TrEMBL record, chains B, C:
One protein family per Pfam: GDC-P
Protein family membership: Belongs to the GcvP family. N-terminal subunit subfamily.
Keywords from the UniProt entry: Oxidoreductase
Enzyme class: oxidoreductase
Task of the protein: The glycine cleavage system catalyzes the degradation of glycine. The P protein binds the alpha-amino group of glycine through its pyridoxal phosphate cofactor; CO(2) is released and the remaining methylamine moiety is then transferred to the lipoamide cofactor of the H protein.
Subunit-structure text: The glycine cleavage system is composed of four proteins: P, T, L and H. In this organism, the P 'protein' is a heterodimer of two subunits.
SUPFAM superfamilies, per the entry: PLP-dependent transferases
Annotated source species: Thermosinus carboxydivorans Nor1
Reaction(s) this enzyme catalyzes, per UniProt: N(6)-[(R)-lipoyl]-L-lysyl-[glycine-cleavage complex H protein] + glycine + H(+) = N(6)-[(R)-S(8)-aminomethyldihydrolipoyl]-L-lysyl-[glycine-cleavage complex H protein] + CO2
Name of the protein: Probable glycine dehydrogenase (decarboxylating) subunit 1
GO process annotations (BP): glycine decarboxylation via glycine cleavage system; nucleoside metabolic process
Family annotation (InterPro entries): GcvPA, GDC-P_N, GDC_P, PyrdxlP-dep_Trfase, PyrdxlP-dep_Trfase_major, PyrdxlP-dep_Trfase_small
Residues of the Glycine cleavage system P-protein N-terminal domain: 5-445
Enzyme Commission number, as recorded: 1.4.4.2
Length: 485, 449, 449, 485
């Protein structure tokens, strides 16, 4: 069951792809490029035939688990089903085979989709404008904070601090840092909500922004959001919305209406584009009117007849991507929004929240529920309810693998001890949830009665638990050509 | 109800679930939302379309674009029209790859992890460096991350940047640098190559890194001899931004002393896609491994001793290090990296070399023929890979319009991306361009007076 | 060497293998071939093309055709332009399905076997009969197989065939019948329906089967009341050739007494593909199960009691029965059957009914509008499903040429497939045709005087 | 690990695909179709959502084994690797979205491909013309025999017998029967070759044809082919070539040159189109000049400018397919032939034969080799060499499953006791063969030393051995709606 490396399949002289012969007169290589600029030794790429390529990657794919294989209740990741028609749309040659530097007259269809998508996202967010350029959520955060910074600077204000609750995603403080801003972490209330006193104590004339996700990373709606916005705005700071949890609020409430000034969405979460095993994503950023001048270039504009890319924006933060962002991810999200329409999107959030509450209530007798409130699109448990001294939350997660599901997120958010964060999403049926609930109950029983089943898990996977410590201590991060004796 | 095919729960399911929860309506679940911030109306979006309708809409929008399957394309400048074997999309399109999340649970993610580990190995082989990450967003942001990393590693805040670097990349550098207080010193080019004298003058002990592109934006192969020594002798890093296809024949960054290699991986089997998703790659010398941004896959063993792969060195990353992280990157371009690995596996040692050779030869054939036309001349005498700048007898925009009429996508009008005359065109010739297509281009150019 | 990417063995592999075999050259392995019959020259075929070149060639050839994505299509007549959800090709395109062979080793073929078993179940549900096979070549040959089966089952050699059956199907029947000495008695139509009086006259105790199509070639819904009794009372079988989409709303063959239902499964999610591969389906009453041609999948258990599927009732088949087999069919259309199953799973009970309803309504809207145009009239008053015959003021061929100019693929000029006037056109309207497209068709027709 | 049936996933009210609403005025159903013609009860199709459809068929696919998963040495089936570029060509909308009854002016590209393909196949077969209409190999046999019959009849001869060796594929005698001809089976020589005495005794004025495959089903070239052709032709009969084994002879020898009058090819074997788990295939038939008038209609013709479908052929056998055959299979074969060219095709056969001989020689010490001659593209063994009383050939095949390969063909050809027929094809590498050989050796050892490992196989598959007897005795061949109590 050990899978060969692609390098181990190699044999000199084999080829896996077929290229045409040169149809132009060829010259000596060194007549074109000085010998000093040429490499001495060719890169050691494998030499395998087409059938080897196909079997290798087909076999690797079968050692991987995606949403198409089953339930994926990974909290904070919104692993909903990715509709296939989106893939069809993205594959159309008129989209996939266009060069980013073509004359805009020849790409009007592409620009139209982008223009409309940014407007749709602005409407969903309650914002006045939107850029599609960021390539992922964290990239959206970076773009958003840079816009906020530029805004303050344009007003002659030097604001260098970003307030981040201790329940936040790690990207929030990291983004502040790479934007040259200082993170001020404030303690949350036990239920993950913002501690208003701590916030009031933290804000000041040096505060650039408060970064918040709502629902919080505990899956709970921040009920004091109006008050929070008031505190932040009165201090002259702006409010940043981390859209990681936006799947709970589509058509129900809007960050802009809550008082947020900047929003990023993750198209690869809320808008149903596939995650690709870690990207490509897309992290569009929506802003309120006053921040529009600072959006990255190019901005897509429409004069009623023609779409164009406008680079002439004196106050822009500049470019944040080589071209215009992850276009083919946008195509998928656009297709999704056009498929769902306003009613469909609202139903998405209703069903996502219903599913999460259903799971939460069903599991509450077996797993510690730290906050007895309705959750939004995901719920967080604090480990097993019954005393099971040998079993860690990690063990529970690994045992879930043996039952054929992807486990929930574990040990996040950091403020909940032994956190197990479950996000079912709206694309799962009651039957799937019932089966999952039954498994989770069974594992809770096993943890007490047969703990070795849980601590020794997984047993049904192609590898068992892996030695992560050694991997980090003595990193083997690439293949190396074996030394010939 | 729109989107019902994506929403499995029926009305009776919903009622049963509400009853189990102990509420009478979904609205109750949203009771924490203050009424004042609730949206009291439907979103102002177009009404739902059926699958048939939405696909027809997208087909119509797609048909409003001219694509490179319809017209031969001589545009490059950071996005390249290469041949992609059919196996690539067939395999990267396996849903187990594209519908997975990041590999936080390695036991059920061995396929993705191994593919990424092999990708890292390929990038190391191509660049001649020790450690690759599992991808960054694109070439431009990879270069910016390299700048951040170099400044972090050296504790310095000046970077010297060659004007031979893609102007879009330099704009991204500027965006990233500004808020971190980095100073960018730009060194101009002479005959399309970075000005060596100016470079020497610019590099000093305050400089964290020298950033060069090779082949550079003008397609020119830079003379890298002695460059690394120059910057190393002042304690700085050499960052090379490279085209991965060119590395099949050109000296790899590791061999000319670069500490960091970055670049745009799009040529490795990714479609043009109007600019994205592309693939930022980065490889570094071992000593910078623990400063590298992005995810890294490592090899290890399971508790039975079987080989396996995991995400490793996560102490560098934002979700552990939070505000002390060197980079905020989280989701990257995993599927693009796997796609590149499939492409490189299919092409293999001989294939990649052949692609590079065909690009080089065809570009030189085209350049030679165009240079022989009256009114046209090559802007530079320096060696080049598969792109070159032509000075044109009429504004480049006019020439492109004429080419478009004749069914050819011309080169990049340089005046649209940098200051300078309007009669400079950057042309790219990949292995996909046939002699007949090149000759057709030449014939149209010849006819323009 | 051409095709080397498909041929993994290198020259050194070949030498090593020759040595192991104990011969000095590959030629020696061919020594049994008499020199007189060896081909002493290369095959006279075009030289090899690279993948890039061959794909460009195919794209060019494809571009020489007008396809139904470019122009709305009102052609039916045995091949139908239906909407196919994107999931269908994504799932049928899983290589585990399409690169497998027939399921002779059930333990590693459970996926294909279960999919085919579910397909059989769907066909039984649609036709109202007991047993379905796992596919035949297409509708026409399925009908011919039904004829053979009926003659075999009854020991008779006459079959009565409605003139409402597709003329191409009747040509295939004739081809199959001739060599077996079957006599085909054709019963004409009146107002587009099979002539009941002539039918009564034709059916007697020498007749093995009555073959009817419903809806028939002209789109007309036949009056099946009492037909089964008519043929059963003489000891013959009723064979119904049906459109599977229509069966979502029309009475199934099982309900009007048919013994065998066959038909063309192409409407169930298969592309037009210029006529093939399509999908012949066949379902029969249980008593004919052991006479049915083609493969059948059965449910069983493994030695641990787990549910599983196998090819069953193989005693019927050619590889066991040899010259005593009822049919020679071996490879059939397995992947097409799986595709149809995926389509039906996606559409489901509501979806298939909706497709049928939309076809019916849109066809009647179109027919009504055309019938109201001066010079045009519907040929028949009988009820129809989604096809209808229009009598045109000018030859149908001329009208089609005009439609083509306006970007519309018109109906079938009936004179090209049967004797009769040149001004009869068979039009089909599926759920894919929009009101706007129908109105555009009507507008062009109206403008033709 | 039990996989649910699609019906078991159903829940009333779910939908898996999304259709537009009617945009025309609707009428009452019974106003359009008489109530008597409408069904009383809707067909019991399942009601499942899109994600259920995707997961169901993704899971089923993962319970299936194809060439992309590994070695498939199934004798007589030519399970070579199916190139992906062929799939791309077949998917082009300009091919996949054309209606068979479009005006021929609008399908010139499709007709050109078909015209050229029939010429290429005729050249490869050494024939004068070719029809692409048959949808599979057996359908090609039927077409071929009908042509032969029509030919004899056109000459006023009544010939009703078809001679078939006892080593033949079952389709040969079955085809004769469905063409209303009588099969005369002749005993083969022990090595599977035609017994000339038996042939001479069988031929006569009533002989329509001899059906033969060469190489024979034992993978051996029929050395007396010239003499056989003479005997058959002198009797006024024709010689039919079953192309199932054509992968051995491309560019090396041609049926037409051996004296065959009619040939069918299996595009889904020799010409690399995928088998689809049992089709769609394609079985083009090539004929000598004198048989051209009898080809099925339509015939594709080219006048130097335009391609057209000609139905006006008075001596034709008629139509054998609803339209023109399996067009998209033809596209794949055409792509393959253009990719390989004349040299590539010859290399295919050379490598196929080399691979088969390599396996044969390596396994000869462990499995009984009935004929010690060079084989062609496949080799046949007669069970295990060493005495292993408990182990049947079926057990060996099942044990191979545990090692992750598809087994060879077993118990065919019928004339070899305990036959194990191995066809490696040219797309397998020496390494793959070496690994397979090692497994086959190991199984031979197990059969003697640990027979229970072999007789109890397979153990690693999703089901173990299935009860085929009960399946046939009490057939359960469809799902039935459970009776509601």
């Amino acid at each position: 069951n050990r899978k060969a490396l692609v390098f181990e399949l190699s044999k000199p002289g084999r080829i896996g792809a077929d290229l045409p012969e040169a149809d132009v007169p060829e010259q000596e290589l060194t007549a074109l490029v000085p010998a000093a600029a040429l490499r001495d030794k060719e890169p050691q790429l494998p030499e395998i035939s087409e059938v080897d390529v196909v079997r290798h990657y087909t076999a690797l794919s079968r050692r991987n688990y995606g949403v198409d294989n089953g339930f994926y209740p990974l909290g904070s990741c919104t692993m909903k089903y990715n509709p296939k028609v989106n893939e069809e749309a993205a594959k159309l040659p008129g989209f996939s085979n266009i060069h980013p530097l073509q004359d805009s007259k020849t790409v009007q269809g592409a620009l139209a989709v982008m223009y409309e998508l940014q407007n749709y996202l602005a409407e969903i967010a309650g914002m006045d404008a939107c850029t599609l350029q960021p390539a992922a959520g964290a990239h959206g955060e970076l773009t958003g904070l840079k816009i906020i910074r530029a805004y303050h600077e344009s007003r002659g204000e030097k604001r260098t601090k970003v307030i981040v609750p201790d329940s936040a995603h790690g990207t929030n403080p990291a983004t502040a840092t790479v934007c040259g801003l200082e993170t001020v972490e404030i303690k949350s209330n036990p239920d993950g909500s913002v501690n208003l006193d701590a916030l009031r104590a933290a804000v000041g004339p040096d505060t650039a922004a408060l970064m918040l996700t709502n629902p919080s990373t505990l899956g709970l709606f921040e009920t004091q959001i109006i008050e929070i916005a008031k505190i932040v705005h009165e201090a002259g700071a702006l409010l940043y919305y981390d859209g990681a949890n936006a799947n709970a609020i589509l058509g129900i409430t809007r960050p802009g209406d809550m008082g947020f000034d900047v929003v990023h969405f993750n198209l690869h979460k809320t808008f149903s584009t596939p995650h690709g095993g870690g990207g490509p994503g897309s992290g569009p950023v929506g802003v309120k009117e006053k921040l529009i001048p600072f959006l990255p270039v190019p901005v897509i504009e429409f004069d009623g007849k023609r779409y164009r890319l406008n680079y002439d924006r004196p106050q822009t933060i500049g470019k944040v991507h080589g071209f215009y962002g992850n276009f083919s991810v946008m195509l998928r999200a656009y297709t999704y929004i056009r498929t769902m329409g306003p009613d469909g999107l609202r139903q998405v959030s209703e069903d996502a929240v219903l599913n999460a509450n259903y799971v939460m209530r069903a599991l509450a007798p077996y797993y510690k529920l730290p906050f007895d409130r309705h959750c939004m699109h995901e719920c967080v448990f604090a480990g097993l309810k019954e005393h099971a001294p040998e079993v860690k939350t990690l063990d529970v997660a690994k045992r879930i693998l043996d039952y054929g599901y992807h486990p929930p997120t574990i040990y996040f958010p950091l403020i909940v001890h032994d956190a197990l964060m479950i996000e079912p999403t709206e694309t799962e049926s009651k039957e799937t949830l019932d089966e999952f609930i039954a498994v989770m109950k069974e594992i809770a029983r096993e943890a007490v009665e047969q703990p070795e089943l849980v601590t020794g898990a997984p047993r049904t996977t192609v590898v068992r638990r892996l030695d992560e410590a050694t991997a980090a201590r003595k990193p083997v991060v690439r293949w190396k050509e074996p030394l010939t004796p | 109800m729109a989107g019902r095919h994506y929403l499995p729960n029926t009305e009776s399911d919903r009622q049963a679930m509400l009853a189990a929860i102990g509420v009478s309506s979904v609205d109750e679940l949203f009771q924490d939302i203050p009424p004042a911030v609730r949206l009291g109306r439907p979103l102002n979006l177009p009404p739902a379309l059926s699958e048939l309708e939405v696909l027809q809409l997208m087909q119509q929008r797609a048909a409003e674009n001219v694509h490179v399957g319809q017209m031969p394309c001589f545009l490059g400048a950071g996005a390249y029209d290469h041949f992609i074997p059919a196996v690539v999309s067939h395999l990267a399109g396996r849903s187990e790859f594209y519908t997975a999340y990041t590999q936080y649970q390695p036991e059920i993610s061995q396929g993705g992890l191994q593919a990424l580990w092999e990708y890292q190995s390929y990038i190391c082989e191509l660049t001649g460096l020790d450690v690759s990450n599992a991808s960054l967003y694109d070439g431009a942001t990879a270069l910016a991350e390299a700048m951040n990393m170099a400044c972090g590693a050296t504790g310095r805040s000046k970077v010297v940047v060659s004007a031979g670097i893609h102007p879009f990349y330099r704009r991204v550098l500027a965006t990233y640098a500004r808020d971190l207080g980095f100073e960018i010193i730009t060194v101009s080019t002479v005959d399309g190559q970075t000005d060596r004298a100016a470079l020497k003058a610019a590099v000093n002990t305050e400089v964290a890194a020298l950033l060069m592109q090779n082949p550079n934006f003008y397609g020119v192969v830079e003379d890298m001899e002695g460059i690394a020594d120059l910057v190393h002798s002042h304690g700085g890093l050499l960052v090379a931004c490279v085209n991965p296809i060119s590395l099949a024949i050109l000296k790899p960054p590791g061999a000319y002393g670069a500490d960091v290699a970055v670049g745009e991986g799009q040529p490795l089997g990714l479609g043009l896609n109007f600019g994205g998703p592309y693939l930022g790659f980065m490889a570094v010398r071992e000593k910078y491994m623990r400063r590298m941004p992005g995810r890294i896959v490592g090899q290890t063993t399971d508790l039975e001793g079987k080989r396996g792969f995991v995400l490793t060195l996560q102490a560098r990353e934002q979700h552990i290090r939070r505000e002390k992280a060197y980079s905020n990157i989280c989701s990257n371009e995993g599927l693009c990296a796997i796609t590149a690995a499939i492409y490189l596996s299919a092409l293999g040692k001989q294939g990649l070399a052949k692609v590079a050779r065909l690009c080089l030869q065809k570009a030189h054939y085209a350049a030679g023929r165009i240079a022989s036309l009256p009114g046209y001349r090559l802007a530079y005498t320096a060696p080049f890979f598969h792109e070159f700048v032509v000075e044109t007898p009429l504004p480049a925009a006019e020439i492109n319009a004429r080419l478009q009429e004749k069914g050819i996508i011309g080169g990049l009008d340089l005046a649209t991306v940098e200051d300078g005359p309007d009669s400079r065109m950057l042309l790219c010739v990949t292995e996909k361009r046939t002699k007949a297509e090149i000759d057709a281009l030449v014939a149209v150019l010849e006819g323009i007076k």
